[in-house]
Write a structure and sequence with these properties.
CATH topology of the largest domain: Rossmann fold
Shape: elongated
Structural class: alpha/beta
Number of helices: 9
Largest sheet: 9 strands, mixed
Number of domains: 3
CATH class of the largest domain: Alpha Beta
Helix content: 40-55%
Order of helices and strands: HEHHHEEEEEEHHEEEHHEEH
Amino acid sequence: MTLKEETEEVKNDGGKASSFSRLTSFNRLYIKWGMLVLLFMFSIILSAYSISPYSEVNGVSVEGTNEVYDQAVYQGSTIQMGDSIVTVLRNRSEIEEAIESSIPQISEASVSLSGLQTVNITVSEYETVAYLLNEDQYYKILENGVILDEFLPRITSNQPVLLNFSQGSVLDRMLVEYEEVEESIKAIVSEIELMDSDRNDMLVRIFMNDGNEVLASIPTLAERLNYYLQMRETVGSEKGLFDLEAGAYFIPFTSDEYEEFEETDEILEVEE
């Protein structure tokens, strides 16, 4: 190759490099301006959305309620018609906490968007497992041991009625034990009274729908009460008190011992 040819080749390569450099710079500039335009368009769209009716809440739906009223959940959420959808979604954690704290029977709440303008609130509830009877008024006792402040003048549920209980460790233990009682036994339990006993602060008297009574200690309640049907068969149609606190004794209502128990709330020692 001659010197002239080499010189022309170098010039051609330099021209190609210069053209590639200009093309690369143009592409970068195009991408940069394209991103700016997209950002500008997005800002316009977002601004238009924020001032349009489509950015506002126009409906709230509640799902998962059983005992709690939907209206109570809605009020607990503090969401109002016309609130910003974006604000509601941004503050969903605070809204969920507000629902759970304002309604003790709600165990969990979840806020989501359904469609463009409807906020959906899905909740889970603590189940009512018993009722506390106090001065002729019934109060719900939840599965987590909480006694609700709202009272009912009457109940139609077949859940047991508890007497003399208060919120705390004794009630919690009672609910745990009662959960282990067989359903066939639960079906004939009417009332459970916490006895005022100096020797056993967990002594309960259970009133059965068949007319009998059972005396038991809460820590062993499920274990012993589950044998109730078999024990009832051994006494036939005779009615009385089954003392299951320390053993298994039957005391007829017509006996002097039961009369003594009614007067003192204490069972005399039974010799085996």
